[in-house]
Amino acid sequence: xxxxxxxxxxxxxxxxxxxxxxxxxxxxxxxxxxxxxxxxxxxxxxxxxxxxxxxxxxxxxxxxxxxxxxxxxxxxxxxxxxxxxxxxxxxxxxx
Length: 95
Known about the structure:
Blueprint: H1 3-7, H2 16-20, H3 35-43, E1 47-52, E2 58-66, E3 70-75, E4 78-83, E5 87-92
Antiparallel strand pairs: 1-2, 1-5, 2-3, 3-4
């Protein structure tokens, strides 16, 4: 026997081969729940309306880019970066 196998304690119910082989699983990337909404709006260049958490402010524009934490909109006043944690709701406007 090799020294490595002797130094490992026996684990009941686990085959010896499983104790000495490295893990083979890789982390699975799970897309954000809102990814499809932002991706569809951006690809189709659909206008969106975003209501912010303060309750009074709404922003309308077309999605230029989006990431995990923010959305870049093309508005009438120019490009506007909005952080997702400041959004209360987002909806597509009917063209």
